[in-house]
Input
Amino acid sequence: MSSQVVENDAALVKFTRAQLEVAIQKTKREDTRLDGLHDLIRMAGPRLYEGSMISGDPDPEVFRLRGEAARATATCRDVETVEKALDSPLRSVRTWAVLSFETRNEYKEAWHPLVPKLLKMLSDPDPGFRQLAVDKLWYYPEGKVAIADRARFETDPDVLLRMARSGSNPDLYRSLVRLLASSDEEVREGALSFIYFNLWNKATAPMWRLDFNQDVYDRVSTLSHSPSQRERESAQRALRELERLKQTGAR
Output
């Protein structure tokens, strides 16, 4: 079912128990373990990372099979498999690998040899992977050092937020001012959108919500007069949220 084709990475809409059993058997052989893992990830679909949330499925049987696939995927969570999965060309497999990376103190020694792979991921072209790597590297001393070094060059505000570990960290505001002053309009646009949605979205967790910062406010105010209509409109949206925050003093 899985042939390591990057395009063939979406969750399966429908599959049978027989196909599930084939995938499970593939994970029991070293030469087909990653192929079987990929099949299971696709079969598990939304149930793979459901946590305390139960994702329904129109077909009750498929829902049950997804749960079995998710449990079978969990049995693949060992150092050797995760090490190989971190190098997979498949986004779903790499995502699973990073999220499976152990950070509890009693397991750190065994998983420590894989840390260099996460350090390399801090420079991944995909900000989604950079963010996932940051969340794991915070638990390792060399990870903290690497995050501090990388933050100076990071251009994605969501990644910078995770690096800062808090929406009220002064380092985050200095980074946002840097992005807002970038010569790259796309970088400035990304920062403006981030500010707007962070403050506008009532679901933003308190620890990730921005405080008012005068330097950020001044840069956004300047961009609200940009000759670019797109940038001007984005800045004005963000400025309205910052104005509200300034007036209420509430996060």
Observations:
- DSSP finds 14 helices and no strands in the chain.
